[in-house]
């Protein structure tokens, strides 16, 4: 789901919640006045105040939907985070108010004349607000809206407030006036903790902190696995409302041409989008460096290691020798059978697929056709031409850094 569609869905959810709260506040207020229930009237006022929180989220999301302007080149997305902070402060305020109620006790005297009606209204309020909190949380999680999730948390705190009203009415009916005090104190402390955590996340996001370290590590791992990339030097991500902006700095071999750099940049962006749904924009800085570590692929006739005879044909070679070199030192080597060397069709392309799967970044070969050449180039595998007179893998290892690079397909 793109950011604009997500914002529209969030706006619809916050609008529906605002209208539902307005209706609920009216019902509780009317029943409270009719029945003489002061606690129900107080809860109606509380719900009336909650309308402003939901309305604030609605306005914040609508502001975020505005196109970027002259003074806001990155858009108005941060408005959503500011509203999330505001709602978090309301959660804190609700926690403090409930704590006061817990210590002073809820007024549940026998002044309630229509206790049954008041009880039904209080239960209806609990169910309605709980349903609203679930609705807003599901939409907020779906579109990754911090303010809508915070508002859902705020509504969830109001469930407990309305439950206190239910207990107060029941206590009035049973002649027990202080039944809810202890529960109110415990609930208010939980609400206060929830508000602190929500406010902390909102403030950190406004300060461009990235809170999901696990997601960041997954992205870095995916980027490091991109063929042709020598090193991921840095990755910076920041959230702005529903969307994410980023910057990545990667190292590639110095001789890489512009077209291949563009392909690499797209691979990096794809790796980030795989984990970040609402990626608005990411800048990829490409730094050319001299490669020091190589994984060299050689087409050979046998499994005799460095004494193996070289094969002159990429697709028809029986085996491939892969050698890992770090700053000129041989660290490891292994031989893989080319299962398609007797294939009549596209043997070269299938051989290249093996080379790419084994993450070779250099191929030394005597000749290469058009299809395999472009497939290797697109996957950032450097192609070196083995000169006449070089017949074994050992000779290639001794001299390959002086070989000329193949820059066009060979017939």
UniProtKB/TrEMBL annotation:
Protein known as: Cation transporter
InterPro entries in UniProt: Cation_efflux (IPR002524), Cation_efflux_CTD (IPR027470), Cation_efflux_CTD_sf (IPR036837), Cation_efflux_TM (IPR058533), Cation_efflux_TMD_sf (IPR027469), CDF_Transporter (IPR050291), Di-Nase_FeMo-co_biosynth (IPR003731), DiNase_FeMo-co_biosyn_sf (IPR036105)
Cation efflux protein cytoplasmic domain mapped to chain residues: 211-288
GO cellular component: membrane
Domain of life: Archaea
Domain Dinitrogenase iron-molybdenum cofactor biosynthesis: 309-401
Family annotation (Gene3D superfamilies): Cation efflux protein transmembrane domain, Cation efflux protein, cytoplasmic domain, Dinitrogenase iron-molybdenum cofactor biosynthesis domain
Record domain Cation efflux protein transmembrane: where: 18-207
Native source species: Methanosarcina spelaei
Pfam family, one: Nitro_FeMo-Co
Membrane spanning residue stretches: 39-61, 82-99, 114-135, 156-176
UniProt-annotated location(s): Membrane
Coarse class of the protein's main subcellular location: membrane
GO MF annotations in UniProt: monoatomic cation transmembrane transporter activity
Membrane topology: Multi-pass membrane protein
Keywords (A to Z) from UniProt: Membrane, Transmembrane, Transmembrane helix, Transport
